[in-house]
Design brief:
Elements lengths: L14 E7 L5 E6 L2 H7 L8 E4 L2 E4 L2 E7 L6 E5 L5 E5 L2 E7 L1 E4 L2 E5 L5 E4 L1 E3 L2 E4 L2 E3 L2 E3 L11 E5 L5 E3 L2 E3 L8 E3 L12 E3 L2 E2 L13 E3 L12 E3 L2 E3 L6 E6 L4 E3 L2 E3 L3 E7 L4 E3 L2 E3 L6 E6 L5 E3 L2 E3 L10 E4 L17 E3 L2 E5 L2 E5 L12 E4 L2 E4 L6 E3 L6 E4 L1 E4 L10 E3 L5 E2 L5 E2 L39 E4 L2 E2 L1 H8 L4 E5 L2 E5 L3 E3 L2 E5 L6 E5 L3 E5 L4 E5 L2 E3 L10 E5 L6 E8 L2 E5 L6 E5 L4 E8 L2 E5 L4 E3 L11 E7 L2 E5 L4 E4 L11 E5 L2 E5 L5 E6 L3 E10 L3 E5 L6 E10 L4 E3 L4 E2 L2
Parallel strand pairs: 2-3, 3-6, 4-7, 5-8, 6-9, 7-10, 8-11, 8-13, 9-14, 10-15, 11-16, 14-17, 15-18, 16-19, 17-20, 18-21, 19-22, 20-23, 21-24, 22-25, 23-26, 24-27, 25-28, 26-29, 27-30, 28-31, 29-32, 30-33, 31-34, 32-35, 33-36, 34-37, 35-38, 36-39, 37-40, 38-41, 39-42, 42-43, 46-48, 47-49, ...
Antiparallel strand pairs: 1-2, 12-13, 44-45
Length: about 725
């Protein structure tokens, strides 16, 4: 190509100059087709220049955009067509300089080679200022090990903007978007984060799953002055802190939190404002509101509806703090203002949350004024710990009556709320308490990008096609390999011999016949293996393990360690599983390290004569509170002659960043489970355990070990016969 462009600039054949912009300072636009072409075009860019990536998949590309643009003439990097440039493999984007702008790129089918996918710096000595990233999509761009941490977006420097982007599906540790503050690149950041769609982030099952974090405890005593406004947080379930504020002077305004587990948390830093946000829980468990810690915090003009969380994830949680707290602990609440907020169909308000021997400093000089409180009817709205003398209450209304424990300043009054044109509920005209009537939630279609779907739901079990499968040698192997997401394999009566491990990498159901019996006999160490994207439902089957080899680690259903099987569902119903005794630890279900189940459920199952556990979910060993299953349920089932514990469910560490695990066992019978003198049920660090209408006969003890939080062990109609009974380090609650 000849010398086209300013001063006879020559580029390689992979780059083409498309146009020259008239004016005193010439501007050029370069269409580039590969990494070499980009590197050539990116050298010496001037104000107003634009580099355009050609449509297609760009694999293992390090995009570094540097230079100094000007106001009105930034240096730009964009896609030839929005959404048609896919950055995959080990690709990343870095910006360093001033007045830079990047737009319309998609990251998927890979993961960042380092600690950040999009970084507003190129090195510790070169960062971006007055720069913008807009119209970027990051979709499931996860490292293969969920414990391996990275941040999808890292904002360094000052005066940068991140807007109209779409970030969805982060499953490994690390914050989705983090504002990184230091004395070198700037503490007074003044960034703007706006109009982004933070889509579903599944429960991480450990600490480190925040969607946004601004600062760290180390630099929390200074102000970032960052604005986070008009974003949507939808199904952001990573951990208890959806937004973790760890600096001062920040403004959180006009955001919508929809069905997201956790809270907007003022964890560190002082003088922050949370105003005019909308929290819509729709009754989803653990959906929270705002948690208040530290000095001079303002929470005003917000609307909360259907927020069902409790404890730290209550609709409003004002914490007890630590006197003379070190930087990484909870500083005492002082001079908080909580005013003109509406709490509608909320489960709990929690004042004095976390009060213990260390956190013994209750809030002082704080005001709770002109708020509307309406519970969800499930119980008393207000929960308190400690002395509320540090709060001044005035002008608040609770319908239909004020909760016991509220001091003066909360009036009980029966109100009929009406839904307004903005979709929110308000008391009758003339009663001016709660959120402002002019709130205007930012529409979902105005956040993120218009050219990439905002996908929330995954393919459900039994949502696809039904396929009849005949008995025989490896007929099920062929059927599983040919199945699609959501399909249902309907087995006919007879024997099924399986000589290969059945890999499940999408939602799949295997169902036995309505009449007769389908017996599965497998000759490999496992029958099913759940892999990334997989979920499995088994019903109406007989599973016989007598042909399995004598090999370590046998399991009917195995979730391999490090496989990245994440947020999956595993259900077994109305089935019999037996003769798993070919080695010393033959499990029914074994979940490996680094994997995570949203739900494991057994209903109407009979299991007998096995050498291991029915559910072995204790592969994690770190102190971050990591675990392998959020909810485990066993209902109306019978277990006989089980060598190991029925369930071994483990969560280590004392970190308070997660809600689970939760365990329920009801309507069941255990006979010779775990052997007398050993363990029939091991629950370590489980937060919620319910044992009801269940009988233990000649079985080992139930071991419940407390790790952190406020765990509950609830018993109803449980009978221990010739059994070592219950061993727990917290008192069990016996329910009527």
């Amino acid at each position: 190509m000849g010398p086209i462009g300013r001063a006879g600039r020559r580029l390689g054949t992979a780059a083409t100059v498309l146009a020259l912009m008239p004016g005193a300072a010439w501007s050029a636009e370069y269409l580039v087709h590969d990494a070499a072409g980009y590197a050539a075009a990116a050298k010496g860019l001037k104000p107003g220049d634009t580099v355009v990536l050609a449509d297609g998949t760009w694999r293992d590309v390090d995009l570094l955009l540097t230079g100094t643009g000007t106001i009105g003439q930034p240096i730009r990097l964009t896609a030839q067509t929005p959404g048609k440039v896919i950055l995959s493999g080990q690709s990343q984007l870095r910006l360093a300089g001033a007045y830079l702008e990047v737009s319309n790129l998609v990251f998927r089918d890979g993961w960042a080679p380092g600690g950040e996918v999009v970084s507003f710096r190129s090195s510790s000595k070169a960062w971006a200022e007055h720069s913008r990233v807009t119209g970027i999509v990051i979709d499931g761009y996860n490292k293969p090990d969920r414990a391996q941490s990275d941040n999808w977006v890292a904002m360094y420097g000052r005066f940068n903007r991140f807007d109209h982007n779409q970030l969805v599906g982060k499953t490994n540790a690390g914050t989705t978007l983090v504002v990184v503050r230091n004395a070198t690149s700037g503490l007074d950041n003044r960034h703007r984060i706006d109009h982004n769609w933070f889509g579903p982030r599944p429960n991480l099952g450990s600490n480190g799953g925040e969607t946004i974090r601004v600062g760290t405890s180390h630099d929390s005593q200074s102000a970032s002055n960052t604005v986070v406004e008009n974003n949507w947080f939808e199904h952001c379930d990573g951990e208890v802190e959806i937004v973790s504020n760890k600096s001062g002077g920040n403004l959180y305004r006009g955001n919508v939190f929809k069905e997201s587990r956790g809270s907007m948390v003022l964890r560190h830093g002082h003088g922050n404002v949370v105003e005019r946000n909308i929290f819509l829980g729709n009754g989803k468990p653990h959906t929270g509101g705002v948690r208040v810690i530290n000095r001079d915090q303002i929470v005003r003009d917000n609307y909360f509806e259907g927020v069902a969380g409790d404890g730290f994830a209550s609709a409003l949680a004002v914490m007890a703090g630590t006197r003379d707290a070190p930087l990484n602990r909870y500083e005492q609440v002082d001079n908080a203002l909580i005013s003109h907020n509406s709490f509608v169909q909320a489960r709990y308000l929690f004042l004095g949350a976390g009060l213990d021997e260390e956190r013994n400093a209750m809030p002082v000089r704080s005001k709770i004024a002109d708020n509307l409180f309406v519970g969800d009817g499930s119980g008393e709205l207000l929960r308190t710990q400690g002395d509320l003398a540090g709060f001044a209450f005035s002008g608040n209304v609770q319908s239909p009556a004020a909760s016991p424990g509220f001091p003066n300043g909360v009036q009980g009054r029966s109100l009929t709320l009406q839904r307004a044109a903005n979709g929110l509920q308000y008391p009758p005209a003339g009663i001016e308490v709660g959120a402002p009537r002019d709130l205007a939630p930012v529409p979902r279609e105005q956040v993120g990008v218009a050219w990439y779907p905002k996908q929330v739901t995954q393919t459900a079990l039994d949502s696809g096609r039904a396929h009849r499968v005949a008995p025989g040698e490896d007929t099920l192997v062929t059927a599983v390999a040919a199945s699609a997401a959501g399909d249902r394999l309907q087995l006919q009566p007879g024997d099924y011999r399986i000589s290969q491990v059945l890999a499940v990498n999408h939602p799949l159901s295997v169902i036995g016949p309505a009449k007769g019996k389908a017996t599965l006999r497998f000759s490999r160490p496992s029958l099913f293996e759940i892999r990334p994207g997989g979920s499995l439902r088994l019903a109406g089957l007989e599973i016989d393990g007598s042909l399995a080899p004598d090999a370590a680690g046998n399991a009917v259903i195995r979730v391999p360690p490090g496989s990245q099987a994440f947020d999956y569902t595993l259900e077994i119903a109305n089935s019999r599983i037996h003769d798993l005794s070919s080695n010393k630890a033959f499990d029914v279900i074994n979940t490996g390290k680094g994997t995570f189940a949203a739900l494991i459920r057994l209903h109407g199952v009979t299991v007998n004569d096995i050498s291991g556990s029915v559910i072995a979910s204790a592969a994690e060993t770190d102190d971050l509170g990591t675990y392998n299953a959020e909810t485990v349920e066993i209902v109306d089932s019978i277990f006989q002659r089980i060598g190991g514990p029925l369930v071994n469910l483990y969560r280590g560490g004392i970190d308070e960043s997660t809600f689970g695990p939760a365990f329920a066992l009801r309507g069941s019978r255990l006979e010779q489970v775990g052997n007398v003198g050993d363990t029939s049920l091991r629950l370590h660090g489980v937060q919620q355990a319910h044992l009801s209408d269940t009988t233990w006969l000649r079985s080992g003890r139930v071991r419940f070990t407390h790790q952190t939080g406020e765990p509950h062990l609830r018993l109803r109609n449980t009978t221990f016969t010739a059994t070592a009974a219950l061993q727990s380090d917290i008192p069990a609650e016996t329910l009527p």
